[in-house]
Amino acid sequence: MKILIDMSFVRPYELTMSIPIYGLRLLQAIPESRVKDVHLLIDGNLEHFFHEHFPQFGTTSVSVKGIFRKANWRVKDMLFDIVHRWKIFTTGFDIVLTLNELTSYATFRTRKKKVSVIHDLKDLSIKSGKKQVQSRQFYQRLIDRADIVVAISEYTRQNILNNYDVDAGKIRVIHNSIKMTAASKCPEGFSADAPYILYVNTLLEYKNPLTLLKAFKSVMDKVEERLVLVGRDTEYWHDVLRPYIKQNGLENRVTRMQNLTDEEIKYLYEHASLFVSSSRHEGFGYTPLEAAICCCPVICTKCEALPETTMMLLNYYEPAEDDSELANRIVEVLATPRNMTELKSISNRFIQEYSPERQVSQFFELMDNLGTETK
């Protein structure tokens, strides 16, 4: 059985984003005994990267060449879609596995068996009007054109079933995997001598960092910790978060960092007094789990998949927008002595549950069964 894993959504400037990381972790965990069954479809701009990091796999490149390389992004995206569909059509395989639903070409048709991953349906919640209708129609096409849809949590599976008329047996759950780097490294210019509360997530409204800032403002005179936010530049950061920090005199107690390596992020997890996730939408919830694996105390919301994926083993507050409740929990958790035995037990539980090897095994079991049906 030949499996084509579509990694063409990974672009050079997106290697550290969550869904590309999801795909790369999956490839890293594929056992040597199954390498011969796997072929990769990749962006032509990343040929060197994949040949260097994954030389064991055969690859087929999707790229826009010739005079079209100078076209505007809309034309190049359209041409990329066309080339992508042609490569899918002409590359020999039995099953295609698509790992990212957030691409215009994720809904392609194929006569071969197709497994599509859906990470979440947050666009149905955070978008409105015409854009919400378009998102709903897009996911309908994606589901209709897949033989099996993999949801990354039971919450996402139930959300799909609640929003679409689809056979429940078609929607399977395979949790994301988590693999922390072995080494950790202090970010340049950073000192862990001054204690800190850590936030690592996208700086967007639906991740709810403003509630954390409000909670921190109300407790900053009660705790010695500063607040460290790790996240890339966004309009929401410039238009909402940074002005709030300045208007409330938080500049000396709030630090933002970005473009950190895995080793540097692990260091921040390991040395933080507390990790806080204030997110309103999580199809899985990488960062609170990563922090817990590093034995850092965690406070998070009970939104969407988080109670499931964190197994209710962490500290929680609700509702997500209640900054007063979050402030109370921050003071309470910081005042509680660390129980390292309990933190290590939680860490080991998550490491076992979300091992890349377990995830890969579940994918191959699913595809092997689908391949048998093909015959």
How does this structure look, described?
This protein is of the alpha/beta class and 375 residues long. Helices cover 42% and strands 15% of the residues. It has 14 helices and 13 strands. The protein has helices at residues 18-28, 47-53, 73-90, 123-126, 129-144, 154-163, 209-219, 235-247, 262-271, 286-293, 306-309, 323-335, 340-353, 356-374, and strands at residues 3-6, 38-43, 58-62, 95-98, 113-118, 148-151, 171-173, 196-200, 226-230, 254-257, 274-277, 298-300, 315-316. A seven-stranded parallel beta sheet has the order 3-2-1-4-5-6-7, with helices on both faces. Strand 6 (148-151), helix 6 (154-163) and strand 7 (171-173) form a beta-alpha-beta unit. Helix 1 (18-28) packs across helix 14 and helix 7 crosses helix 12. The model has no long low-confidence stretch (mean pLDDT 93).
Briefly characterize the structure.
The chain is an alpha/beta fold.
